[in-house]
């Protein structure tokens, strides 16, 4: 196959007499899948072809376009590849729509994977600011599980909560916070008073891998091990609901516990706070920020979190 060079400003290279060549659909499907999965084996399995067919189709597409789409062995996209991916996805999406289906021209779709309580307490109350500033961007919000990093494979941006050591993605820190024990007023009346940290001995402590008790124990001088018994939750919002129902005492970050504190269903036991060992991070795969809608959302979220 002859090498083809892109003319400046053209979408496809003209193989002759000014005609633009449209790449084969199987090449476009393979490129989109490989960019999303970042694995030749998984791409081959999804498309029911051999791994060598995946490699051949990508080389064929790069030859037609006259540019490299993938930059490294981990299948991160080049700048040109990231830009072309958005066009390919837009085109494939148009082919998937049925005749007569109305779509607004020029719109962009941004897929977010967000931890549940962060979404409800932090993001949703602020999200209208973003949609009013960028009305041409449609947000698709999906739930991810903190620490377990259970997210949708095709999410453009992900909010993770954890220690921040993410080798598989680029990321920035969004917010840190302090934690303190909270309980319902009824629980405090029944089991109190709570005047010093030692008064927690024998109390039902609600557990979560998101907020280990040993952090607060150490800050208050308690040489206690991490609790290994009692109810456990992988979502802070659910743990707050359980504490407000009188099930026990929850260790909660101020920002995420604000709705329960504001409406009085949870109250502080002590005036002792300590920094959480975890933080919220905005994460993305290499090349994602070349898409203007992703960069716009990341910049907006950083500003919103700073307020």
TrEMBL record:
<dbReference type="GO" id="GO:0006351">
    <property type="term" value="P:DNA-templated transcription"/>
</dbReference>
<dbReference type="InterPro" id="IPR058163">
    <property type="entry name" value="LysR-type_TF_proteobact-type"/>
</dbReference>
<dbReference type="InterPro" id="IPR036390">
    <property type="entry name" value="WH_DNA-bd_sf"/>
</dbReference>
<feature type="domain" description="HTH lysR-type">
    <location>
        <begin position="23"/>
        <end position="78"/>
    </location>
</feature>
<protein>
    <submittedName>
        <fullName>Transcriptional regulator, LysR family</fullName>
    </submittedName>
</protein>
<dbReference type="InterPro" id="IPR036388">
    <property type="entry name" value="WH-like_DNA-bd_sf"/>
</dbReference>
<keyword id="KW-0804">Transcription</keyword>
<dbReference type="InterPro" id="IPR005119">
    <property type="entry name" value="LysR_subst-bd"/>
</dbReference>
<dbReference type="Pfam" id="PF03466">
    <property type="entry name" value="LysR_substrate"/>
</dbReference>
<dbReference type="InterPro" id="IPR000847">
    <property type="entry name" value="LysR_HTH_N"/>
</dbReference>
<keyword id="KW-0805">Transcription regulation</keyword>
<dbReference type="Pfam" id="PF00126">
    <property type="entry name" value="HTH_1"/>
</dbReference>
<keyword id="KW-0238">DNA-binding</keyword>
<comment type="similarity">
    <text>Belongs to the LysR transcriptional regulatory family.</text>
</comment>
<dbReference type="GO" id="GO:0003700">
    <property type="term" value="F:DNA-binding transcription factor activity"/>
</dbReference>
<dbReference type="GO" id="GO:0043565">
    <property type="term" value="F:sequence-specific DNA binding"/>
</dbReference>
């Amino acid at each position: 196959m002859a090498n083809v060079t892109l003319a400046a400003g053209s979408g496809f290279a003209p193989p002759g007499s000014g005609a633009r060549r449209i790449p084969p659909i199987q090449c476009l499907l393979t490129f989109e899948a490989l960019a999303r999965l970042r694995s030749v084996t998984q791409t081959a399995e999804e498309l029911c072809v051999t791994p060598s067919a995946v490699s051949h189709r990508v080389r064929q597409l790069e030859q037609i376009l006259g540019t490299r789409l993938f930059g490294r062995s981990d299948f991160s996209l080049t700048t040109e590849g990231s830009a072309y991916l958005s066009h390919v996805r837009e085109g494939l999406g148009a082919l998937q729509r049925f005749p007569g289906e109305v779509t607004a021209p020029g719109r962009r779709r941004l897929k977010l994977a967000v931890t549940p309580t962060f979404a409800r307490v932090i993001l949703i109350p602020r999200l209208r600011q973003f949609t009013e500033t960028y009305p041409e961007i449609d947000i698709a919000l999906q739930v991810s599980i903190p620490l377990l990093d259970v997210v949708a494979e095709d999410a453009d941006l992900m909010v993770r909560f954890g220690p921040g050591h993410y080798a598989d993605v680029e990321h920035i820190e969004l917010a840190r916070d302090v934690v303190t024990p909270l309980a319902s007023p009824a629980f405090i009346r029944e089991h109190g008073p709570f005047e010093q940290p030692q008064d927690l001995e024998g109390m039902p402590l609600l557990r979560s891998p998101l907020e280990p008790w040993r952090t607060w124990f150490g800050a208050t001088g308690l040489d206690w091990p991490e609790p290994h018994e009692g109810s456990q939750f992988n979502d802070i919002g659910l743990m707050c609901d359980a504490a407000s129902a009188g099930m026990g005492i929850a260790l909660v970050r101020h920002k995420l516990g604000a709705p329960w504190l504001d409406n009085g269903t949870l109250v502080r036991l002590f005036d002792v706070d300590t920094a959480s060992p975890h933080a919220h991070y905005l994460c993305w795969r290499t090349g994602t920020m070349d898409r203007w809608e992703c960069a716009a959302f990341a910049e907006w979220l950083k500003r919103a979190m700073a307020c």
